[in-house]
Amino acid sequence: MPRWKKILYTLLATVVVVAGGVFGWSFLHRPDTCAEGVERIGGECVGVNGSGYDFGTEEISAVAKAIARENDRIDKEPHVTVAMMLPLHSDKPALRRQIRSDLQGAYLGQLAANAGTGEPPKIRLVLADPGRDYRHQSTVVDTLLRMADSSADRLRAVTGFNLSLGATEAAVRRLTAHHVPVLASRITGNGIANKEGLAAVAKPDFPGLARIIPTNDDVARALAGFNGDWNRENSRTVLVHDTRPDSYNESLAKAFDGIEEKGPAGPAAMSFTSPEIDEAGSTGNQFTSIANNICGSQADTVYFAGRTLHLRLFALKLAEVGCANRHYTIISGSDAASLRQNMSARDWERLRGTAGRPKVTVQYAAPAHPEAWSTELAAWKKDWARTHGREPAERDLPQYLTEPQAALAGLEKLIETTPATDFGAPPDLEDSRTMLVYDGLVTIGTALHQAQSGAAENTPGLEDVGREWAQLQSQHRVRGTSGLICLTGGGNPYDKPVAVVELDPGQKGGGKLKFVGLGWPADGRPQPHNCVIPDHTS
């Protein structure tokens, strides 16, 4: 063989070997994908998808597909992308139902935001799963930042965020540092919120962050004012709190501890340590000791700073101890909105007891409740008639009740006219999740429409949308189903009410959630007319 042929064949063989090696390495190291945009990491399907993937959670399959159909419908119209970021899979049935409630609210909010004729931009909604407890949030945030820079995706807001965790805060901090607007619809931890005041608003911790749910400080003030706790005997109350690092637990414990009470000191705060948000571990044993210690004190009201799973176990232990037929009231925060879904018939029976009244009543501040507006408006009309000697006219009725009532009626009508097959199961408004997430998407839609200028094809910039949050007040207030949404200069909801609700064990056959009344963070005062925010909070 001529020498030149030997050299040629040798080079060709080398190229084949190298190419084969590169291909083999790429094949062996290619991402293990679950679906388009979704990668398997540590046994979890993590990533961003808007084409109907359910992340392995059958309960959300129908609503994920419905979102994809809406995305396809508006694909040829001027639109931007909004991401719904929260863990989307769990091995616990109750948590999977909660995820479904969140996505039902997001889908309904997308429909409402896209309903206007000639109002660009429309919303393309994508689901972003950061993994359990947001442990893979960094990978998802990488994707979202690329989408924000992409002329094809045009990501203009991220919402969701259902847990106040360190990883959640890290995700929000990184997104807002890159000017991606974030609307937090379900986190109450004080650590993920901007401060107020001119200096703080000029240099916010989270540029472009808005919230539509009160912080734990606001929740504690609303509960204290509602219950008259400012005049409660100190000796009759005790704080029970979880020491596991969790900003929701920490800020709620601090807020409860700051409630001023009269009289001699009561029992010192009692702590427990849980292993995880949704794991019991040895908390049952810890609660037995705590319940016995409370039994030996005069306390009959317990401020509980902990997650839903542990609240349920504590309530059952307190009922089990049964101190001389005493009745206890447990007061907790917004995470307890999921408690009813975790209760079994046996649980209700244990809380109910046999003495003719419940052994334990659990009261908490829900972000919303479907009975709030009709109940409060009926009571308001009754008081008005007694004071004025006549029935109130339409012009006399308070906006802070009538406008949310009309918004709720609109949501209920939307649910009624939307195919039932889009939901997977009928939306359960009592758990507040669907209502609050719906309000979040409507708020984002309002900001997008107001930030849009010029031709329909123009896309509002990231910072344009972020700056729009502070304009959503007064005449631009958002009529939310959870209450009027009036955002301050720091992007916080001004005097947003909480729905005080109780778990009522009821009669034999199961318990129910009972709406008790509205609590207002601003010293019990409802929002002002037209939601004009006082200057000291702006």
Features:
single chain; 538 residues; alpha/beta; Rossmann fold; 2 domains; 8-stranded mixed sheet; 7-stranded mixed sheet; 16% strand
Descriptive account of the structure:
Helices cover 39% and strands 16% of the residues. It folds into 2 domains: 36-214 and 403-493, 3-Layer(aba) Sandwich (Rossmann fold), CATH 3.40.50; 217-366 and 501-519, Rossmann fold, CATH 3.40.50.2300. Mean pLDDT is 89; it is low at 25-29. β14 (478-480) and β15 form a beta hairpin. The chain is built from 15 helices and 17 strands. The strands form 3 sheets. The chain has an 8-stranded mixed beta sheet with strand order 1-2-3-5-4-6-7-8, sandwiched between helices. A 7-stranded mixed beta sheet has the order 10-9-11-12-13-16-17. The protein has a two-stranded antiparallel sheet with strand order 14-15. The chain has helices spanning 3-29, 61-73, 93-113, 137-149, 166-177, 198-202, 216-227, 247-257, 283-295, 308-321, 345-352, 372-388, 399-417, 433-451, 462-468, and strands at residues 33-35, 38-41, 44-49, 79-85, 122-129, 155-160, 182-184, 209-211, 237-242, 270-272, 301-305, 328-332, 360-366, 478-480, 483-485, 498-504, 512-519. The chain is an alpha/beta fold and 538 residues long.
